[in-house]
Amino acid sequence: MNLTAIIHEAEEGGFWAEVPALPGCVTQGETREELESNLREAIEAWLTAGEEGLITETPGQQLLEVAV
User: Is 42 buried (19+), middle (13-18) or exposed (0-12) by CB count in 10 A?
Assistant: First the structure.
């Protein structure tokens, strides 16, 4: 699975990143290497949370599980 992350330079130094395909999946790091490591962990945690049913439907929204 390939996901795209948007990397931003933080005003206070370091970096932060978001994964548009995974709402709420964000992380930060002091260096680019730390950010990339933290990003992998954040994506794994986000996907695991979805598998455990922690992502719930809200009114007007539908969920669809897709195996990749």
Answer: buried
Strands (E), the chain: 6-9, 15-18, 26-29
Q: Which of the listed CATH numbers 3.40.50.2000, 3.40.120.10, 3.30.160.250, 3.40.50.460 matches domain 1-68? A: 3.30.160.250
CA–CA dist 19, 26 (Å, integer): 7
Tally Cβ neighbours within 10 Å of residue 61: 7
Q: CA end-to-end span of the chain, whole Å?
A: 7
**For residue range 26-51, what is the model confidence (pLDDT) as tens digits?**
999 999 999 999 999 999 999 988 65
Asked if 15 and 32 count as a contact pair (C-beta separation under 8 A), the reply is: yes
- How far apart CA 49 and CA 46 sit, in angstroms, is 5
